[in-house]
Amino acid sequence: MMKVEEKLFQNRYRVDADRPHIRIKNESVCNDGCVSRACVVCCPAGCWSFEEGKIGLITDGCLECGTCRVVCDTHGNVDWNYPRAGFGVLFKFG
Amino acid sequence: MTQNIEKFDVIVVGAGPAGNAAAYTLAKAGKKVLQLERGEYPGSKNVQGAILYADALEKIIPDFRDSAPLERTVIEQRMWVMEDESYVGTTFRSDRFNQMPGNRYTIIRARFDKWFSEQVQKAGALVICEMTVIALLRDAAGKVIGVEVDREDGKIYADTVILADGVNSLVASRAGLRDDIKPAAVALAVKETIFLPKETVEARFNLKGSEGVVIEMLGSISQGMAGTAFLYTNKDSISLGIGCMLSDMKAQNTTPAELLEKLKQHPSVAPLIAGGETREYAAHLIPEGGYHALPELYGEGWLLVGDSAGFVNAVHREGSNLAMTSGRLAAETLLELGEKGLPSTAANLARYKARLEDSIVLKDLKKYRNIPDTLHSQRQFLSDYPALLNGAAHEFFTVDGQDKATKEKAIFNAFRERRSLLGLLGDAYRLWRATR
Ligand code: SF4
Ligand code: SF4
């Protein structure tokens, strides 16, 4: 099985260091209020994690699909933006 | 930039198939067009399977075959209904598809979009990359009069704004032109581009020259979710992907990456990609809500085209052709208004909707308007039938001393056990209704 990290390693990115384009509005909603944590399962790039009772989000490998925003429809807890112009994933084939 | 410096006839937001079709058609007719793209180059943010349908592009650029980067001409279409170890399939292969002009081609979007954008620029549009539109500008009466971009003094004005910014269309939803997409109206697809020597692709799929094969798959690979998978042959690579409705994906525990890995390991798929090198992994949302999920398509000074309008025919896996057609129709609407000296008011832009209704875009979406609901509520189409079909084939093709009449009876009984006779009839009726 090829891990998601290995898949992402093949991609080209221009990472906007320290300026994540997606933010969690209120982490306690994720940690305590959310049952599905659908973002963790559905994110195709494995950007979301839930470990030791805490939600985690690292957007470096983000494929800019929008899934995490759409699946968080119950709580609307994802502040989703595109990366700044020119940054983010650069598809070679697309 | 301020109003007295520069004003455009049309601003097109996004440089995918819909935006390019619109910008090209308008610029070619002499309109002053500005096209804005957030990626480093057109195509750098765009993802598709990808199949190009010649007809839609031909109506925009008749001689596209002379210069467009096409991978292979599709001469064979396979449909596979899959179980864990098997599939039951159909194949349609015809040499007629080899006779020019070709009808469907596999393409690599980053290359294709770059080419399309070059044509747009040659036609006279101003294309600016690495510029993200963050908001729409409106006048006191609420009419859209331009866009704001992520630069200082980033206000740019135009008579009309065409939003071709894709499925997420943040600009449209933030401006209140449409609601954000719902999990039940959108599929998430993931894909790998897997490279193999050209000769290997041709040998494995029985191809010569520029011939290509498409395989559409459904069944156990989507693990009970509403979804399909695909395999497309490119020149020296294979595009392999799988997509499922987000509402289903939310309710289970397999990640999209794992789903794709399982597809790659399916005994019918693995030999086709063996030894290949994955050079890219991509993901994309596909608006599959169909006719009932369509937003408002136009208003005072604005139009929605392509994925941002939700123009996807999920049944036939068509989207880019509807995107290009809607982009062209939006442009032709504006050209008609220009000729008649009419402004881009909502009342006048209603002609865009009329043109869509008269075209493949809304005719086909209307025809299949009930399919999304049918697949959501009738799970047997996705899980029971693939299993039953494969079980039946296994029974029928295993020579084990059992006579054929007994085998047929066993198959029939297996169907009846899973679905009652009335259920079977009802399913046939529902599927028929949904495609009327
Ligand atoms: S689905 Fe929304 S609320 Fe739940 S964990 Fe994810 S981001 Fe947080
Ligand atoms: S946009 Fe897509 S890839 Fe990026 S974090 Fe959200 S779900 Fe993951």
Summarize this structure briefly.
The complex is a heterodimer of chains A (94) and B (436). Chain A is built from 4 helices and 6 strands. Chain A has helices spanning 4-9, 27-33, 38-42, 67-71; strands at 12-14, 22-24, 48-51, 54-57, 78-80, 88-90.
* Count of beta strands of chain B: 17
Poorly predicted segments of chain B: none
From the alpha-carbon coordinates, what is the Rg of chain B to the nearest angstrom?
23 Å
Bound molecules: iron/sulfur cluster
**Helix and strand string of chain A, N-terminal first?**
HEEHHEEHEE
Tell me about the largest β-sheet of chain B: 9 strands, mixed
* Low confidence ranges of chain A: none
Number of strand elements of chain A = 6
Taking Cα atoms only, what radius of gyration of chain A do you get, to the nearest Å?
Answer: 13 Å
Q: CATH fold name of the largest domain in chain B, please?
A: FAD/NAD(P)-binding domain
Strand content of chain A: 15-25%
Roughly how much helix do the residues of chain B carry, as a percent range?
25-40%
Number of helical elements of chain B:
15
The computed structural class of chain A is alpha+beta
The quaternary structure here is heterodimer
Largest interface: A-B, 39 and 55 residues
Describe the protein's architecture and organization.
The complex is a heterodimer of chains A (94) and B (436). Chain A contains 4 helices and 6 strands; from the N terminus they run αββααββαββ. Chain A has helices spanning 4-9, 27-33, 38-42, 67-71; strands spanning 12-14, 22-24, 48-51, 54-57, 78-80, 88-90. In chain A, the strands form 3 sheets. A two-stranded antiparallel ribbon of chain A has the order 1-6. Chain A is globular and about 40 Å long. Chain B folds into 3 domains: 8-71 and 107-179 and 295-358, FAD/NAD(P)-binding domain (3-Layer(bba) Sandwich); 184-287, D-Amino Acid Oxidase, Chain A, domain 2 (2-Layer Sandwich), CATH 3.30.9; 372-435. Chain B contains 15 helices and 17 strands. Chain B has helices spanning 17-28, 54-58, 109-122, 170-174, 198-205, 246-250, 256-265, 270-273, 320-340, 346-357, 360-367, 371-377, 384-397, 404-418, 421-434; strands spanning 7-13, 33-36, 51-53, 72-82, 87-93, 104-106, 126-128, 133-138, 144-149, 155-163, 186-195, 211-219, 227-233, 237-245, 277-287, 298-299, 302-304. In chain B, helix 1 links the parallel strand 1 and strand 2 (33-36). The longest helix of chain B is centred in the last third of the chain and has 21 residues, at 320-340. Chain B is globular and about 85 Å long. The mean pLDDT of chain B is 90. Classes of the chains: A alpha+beta (94), B alpha/beta (436). Chains A and B meet through helix 1, helix 3, helix 4 and strand 6 of A and helix 3, strand 11, helix 6, helix 7 and strand 15 of B. Bound molecules: iron/sulfur cluster (SF4) (2 copies). One iron/sulfur cluster (SF4) binds at residues 22, 43-45, 47, 59, 62-68 of chain A. Residues 22, 43-45, 47, 59, 62-68 of chain A line the site of one iron/sulfur cluster.
